[in-house]
Fold each of these.
Amino acid sequence: MQTIQLETPGKFRVIEESVPQKGHGEALVGIRSIGVCGTDIHAFHGRQPFFEYPRILGHELGIEILEIDENDLGLKIGDKCSVEPYLNNPATPASRLGKSNCCEELEVLGVHIDGGMRPLLSLPIHKLHKANDLNFDQLALIETICIGAHGIERSQLTPDETILIFGSGPIGLGAIQSAQSVGARVIVADINQDRLDFCRYTIKVAHTLKADEADFEDQLRSLCNGDLPQVVLDATGNRQSMQRTFSLTAHGGRIVFLGLLMGEITFDDPNFHRRELSVLASRNATPDTFKSVINAVSSGSIYTKPWVTHHMELLEVPEKFEETIKQPGLIKAVIHVG
């Protein structure tokens, strides 16, 4: 079968692979849609940490089950599923605590091991989340939304609180729509006006701010009746943005770092202590998050239709990937297989 491999930064190639064999506890699945993630873009540009070349990318997957043994999850041939791409060791301390998303031995499809940019793949049955009422493009979005949703779970956001979210790319959008579904007051900040317009006019965020305005804090306080938000979530992975959260969070509030920075951040300790802030990391998502996000997308409380703005066929990736990720107005690109 023809598979797309990222050979070196900036260079995809088509390779031939044998059809995979289904192992014990696995299902043979047909890959139908693949979301293009920021991780894939960073890998293409040679900026992805914990990464080795060559690598078959693809971890945001909408799949169809082609072969499966009898199982206690009720999965059968023909079912459509989203894939939880975090392959964990259930014996590790984190996994035993129910934190398979941050397992000490975690391997993520398309990052640490080869992923889904190919027609067929054999996957553990318990990593498949059935959602026959969703289309394959929606299924390919579930993992992205889950990352944002897990950040909101970590924040313990309540309906009577205000949250400021820095960054409105796909991961930020997952957090934004999850915060909206909680019923909290959401303020979105970004330096990209097109993304802010998307948030305001397409997913109906009432309050958006340009993050690079000189009077940003004054504008923020004005929206919060002179106060600051109880929760600030950073989905940018930008050092400056992450560090400024410490001065923009209300006393007694929570900071959630959803974006990843390869390096160190610093903060003023007296300010940190005076405010008694809580700082939380958020990594990947749990199986329960996948279930709750699928339910939210199915019910329409998280609306995904506007997300997918660009499309490619699998065998077009070597030629069109770089051009596509540079397109103005890109929110999410999806690769179709077959």
Amino acid sequence: MDNILDIRGLGKRYAGGHRALDDVNLQIRKGEIFALLGPNGAGKSSLIGICCGIVTPSEGQVLVGGHDHQKQFRAARSMIGLVPQELLTDAFERVVVTVNFSRGLFGKPKDPAYIEQLLKDLSLWDKRHAKMMELSGGMKRRAMIAKALSHEPDILFLDEPTAGVDVELRRDMWNMVHRLRERGVTIILTTHYIEEAEEMADRVGVITGGKLILVEEKQALMQKLGRKTLTLNLAEPLERVPDALAPWNVRLGAGGYELIYDFDSQAEATGVPSLLRQMSDMGMAFKDLHTSQSSLEDIFVGLVHQDRHGGDA
């Protein structure tokens, strides 16, 4: 698959010496959904700002569809749509006017049919003549998306797109993302709702302290780094974990009625059979058991913790 975005050795140091990005290298494939995860201050917004031409890098290069974003700015920027986290709008402009104006900024000819369909897809058609200042927060977010898509970009950046929006808008947005991907649009999103990245993304990148510490296919990441949890529902409650079970680092839950064991599902020896044998030898009966896979959020928290503590996690 061809790369539509190629980030090479990107760095950003702000006045005062703060280094927001440190030697970031990343290739985004055409037509994929890429989720960029990281805690506040990790460098996500700086990275997006540089790719969109809003922030000047201290070093490195960004190629958008083969165009150098500094030497061939107009060609590179015309391929990008950005939905920023902040709701910045022309308060007194009407919705359809501001969307058409955004299209014109990129030199695109008027296309009333396209704009009409875009506003209908975002449930904005009935509000097309309303002033931006008259819209609710959710409707303003929809209008920002319409503006970003007005010039039919190849790449759409969504910076925390569903932060503070209602459930209906969140559902509409993800339906829209699926439709855009079907048309070949590349989606790059940052989000705090990790379950959305888990559901939507093809690949996941984790950034912290300005460094991209991991880029992985989502399914491979969850398979490789995901841990499983075995929960045993005991017939009789325990007040504490027996010393004989200490080697498995099990813990109690549900008032002593559950014995919980975390294990690496990819390990050659998971420890599950030996744990069950030990419990049988001790005469410990259980009524039921089930396993659960760790979520992308669990993996993300573990990676960030490991990076901050020098790999001691």
